[in-house]
Amino acid sequence: MRVAPKEVETFRDDFTxxxxxxxxxxxxxxxxxxxxxxxxxxxxxxxxxxxxxxxxHFLDIDEHYLSxxxxxxxxxxxxxxxxxxxxxxxLACWDMLERLMTSLAEDYSDYFKLxxxxxxxxxxxxxxxxxxxxxxxxxxxLPKPPLEYIGCQVQGDFALxxxxxxxxxxxAGMVTxxxxxxxxxxxxxxFKEWHGPVPMAHNEGIFERALKYLTAMQVGSPIRRLNWTLxxxxxxxxxxxxxHEWGHERTSVTPDNVGEKVYLRVEVQVxxxxxxxxxxxxxxRTYLISLEDIATNPEWAKRMHRTMKTLPAPLIEYKGLSRxxxxxxxxxxxxxxxx
Amino acid sequence: MSNQIKVEVASICQVAPxxxxxxxxxxxxxxxxxxxxxxxxxxxxxAKKIYKNAYSLLSDPADTNRYRIxxxxxxxxxxxxxxxxxxxxxxxxxxxxxxxxxFSPFWLAKKHLMLAGGVGVTPFMSYIPEMLxxxxxxxxxxxxxxxxxxxxxxxLSEQLGDKYFGYDSxxxxxCDVTELLSQQPLGTHIYICGPESLIQAVEEAAQTLGxxxxxxxSEEFAAPKPGMPFIAEIKSSGKQVxxxxxxxxxxxxxxxxxxxxxxxxxxxxGQCVCTVEExxxxxxxxxxxxxxxxxxxxxxxxxxxxxxxxxxxxI
Lengths: 339, 315
Ligand code: HEM
Ligand code: FES
Fold this sequence. Notes:
heterodimer; A: alpha+beta; 3-stranded antiparallel sheet; 13 helices; 10 strands; B: alpha/beta; Elongation Factor Tu (Ef-tu), domain 3; Rossmann fold; Ubiquitin-like (UB roll); 3 domains; 7-stranded antiparallel sheet; 19% helix; globular; binds protoporphyrin IX containing FE; binds FE2/S2 (inorganic) cluster
């Protein structure tokens, strides 16, 4: 890994979060075309982009690791219900712990170490000074329930979907940095139910096809897709639960500050079949980058100008961009004189 | 397929007159853990063709060192079971798929009622250890013919005590399915694995009793459909690409250095669509609409094939 974790920065109050030049370079820029439309944009989650890329490993640990783990703790301390697991998801939680620990230990051996002797597991996380021995499968031997325990050591939000009757149900998860949705609200819902608010995609059959694909997914063949939105300030926790803290910030965008205040928020979503429980794990790894930092790459700025300019009105509305979308387009237009 | 696992047959044992059990151990990699109800697809390279059959894993899911499968000899079938019974020896190597699961228990059920017919007992062999661990309410009703099937009946009866019910039709004990279903408490889920006739009988009884279809689960194997070899002709170059029974059209095109955009390789994303100029198509994707499929001029080469011997692609 080229980008080592740096000191803790904040995603709230004084917003000290920043991207180093290396982090900008490896940012998972989400627009392959000049027009953005919803599609079944799923591909095998295999390494891409070579050493240091955000797609080099199953999980991406980057320079924001310590900051994101600190932010997660703040959220969970204030709102413990942002992490939940229904009783029947116990085994799936252990599946998730196993998958995350083994892949971290394999891909980032400088930071993480897993020793397995029968069902006695020893886990070392040198970044957070954690060193625990526990019995695999026995929650009483861990300081916290398995999902919460491992979830607090990995960047990204997590959902565990139970598969029943050819559908998926959101029955467990840890969601502290969502793009305006609530785990507590969506808990227990089916794939189509929790996707209810999304415009356009239902009519185009996108969710039907995606669900068919997901329910047929096999162990050992994870897939990924990208999603994106815009966020005002480098705020990780844009949840309905905290709307009163961030909703009004949309009105603070002006033509003068749009470049530094508006962030492109990209989610690299990874889906992986869990072997012991047959649940599906859904990881939402969120990356934030200011428009200013995007502008350091002229190709990106030009491309993003075009996607923003042609974004369908229902998406502008759904993603909550109405108040400042035109300022974003105006700002980016300087990098795309031909358009 | 690249994600197949190479295994060695560690032991073989006759568990009923027509049923053999195979214990499989990994050679290079470790075996994946698996979930109750999971199956693997075993590849059988017979002299004539490669058979691919799905078999339920019947060991305790907590034991990830080996997989066990049971194969019933079916003289009339496509030949995979004959190969397993007659050709496969201890020490042989086989290729299997990673486990996948189309028959997972519905864990929210108040009670689980399992109905097994013959070799259909196998998926329940992996349910039971996990149900015992979770301390859930369940019953196993096992219908067999002791002259042919009935594998594991003694050990199951011993292990499960009053949760076990055996019916040997070679000794004229039969299960009255309607009666059985009518006695179940509300919130019971019913799992059937066995011959089509058993599945039908249970479904009919459930309907008579007014049970919702959502509480009935039956095992249907979606083993990869056998494919016939065919030729794909490329219109622009006139090149003839041979597609073998094992390869997808997409794989065959790639092997001939013809690149087609693709993402999911599973017939849903729509990326790989190709225009078909000539030839009938065996559509296997979820992407094209019924109308598009009927029109017959587009194919998703990652999963779909020629219905005949030849296709002409406009690429
Ligand atoms: C199984 C794992 C998945 C989970 C848990 C999940 C969850 C969600 C949630 C909670 C939302 C926000 C809905 C709201 O506004 O309240 C969302 C949005 C969305 N999801 Fe999924 N999703 C999953 C898989 C997928 C897949 C496979 C697709 C592929 C097409 C997809 C496409 C979308 C789209 C297009 C949106 C709208 C996003 C936007 O424009 O910002 N989702 N998803
Ligand atoms: S590659 Fe996705 S449909 Fe063929």
